[in-house]
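Need residues for this backbone.
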C-alpha cells in the first residue's frame, strides 16, 4: 500500500466534452474512488445504486455509486465511483488504478503504467 496525490480528469464518458480536474489522494489500499458529489453533479453524472460500508469503529455509511471516466497522463477508463459527501476526501482507489492501467510505486510515490500480463493455456 502507498499514498500520494495526483490530479486526474473526470468525465461522464470517454467522449464527453465537459470534464473536471480533481486532486485525489491516491491510496492503493482503498478499493473504490471517491469524487465530491458537487463535481459529479456539475458533470451530470447520476447514481445508479447505493452501497453500505462498515467502518473500523462499527459505524455504517451509505454512499451513492455512479460510473465515470477517469483520465491520467493520456490514459483513461470507465470505473464505478462513489459520491463523496461533506467530510469525505477525494480518493483514487485500486479499481480505478487497474482500470486505467496504472500502478503506484510505494517507494517513490509515483504512478506508472501497469505491466500488462496475460496467462495463456497451452494446447
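Answer:
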Amino acid at each position: 500500500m502507498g499514498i500520494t496525490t495526483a490530479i486526474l480528469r473526470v468525465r461522464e464518458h470517454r467522449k464527453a466534452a465537459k470534464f473536471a480536474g480533481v486532486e485525489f489522494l491516491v491510496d492503493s489500499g482503498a478499493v473504490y474512488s471517491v469524487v465530491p458529489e458537487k463535481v459529479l453533479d456539475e458533470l451530470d453524472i447520476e447514481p445508479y445504486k447505493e452501497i453500505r460500508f462498515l467502518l473500523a469503529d462499527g459505524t455504517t455509511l451509505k454512499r451513492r455509486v455512479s460510473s465515470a471516466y477517469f483520465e491520467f497522463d493520456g490514459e483513461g477508463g470507465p470505473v464505478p465511483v462513489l459520491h463523496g459527501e461533506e467530510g469525505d476526501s477525494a480518493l483514487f482507489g485500486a479499481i480505478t488504478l487497474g482500470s486505467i492501467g496504472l500502478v503506484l510505486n510505494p517507494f517513490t510515490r509515483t504512478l506508472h503504467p501497469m505491466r500488462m500480463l496475460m496467462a495463456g493455456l497451452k494446447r
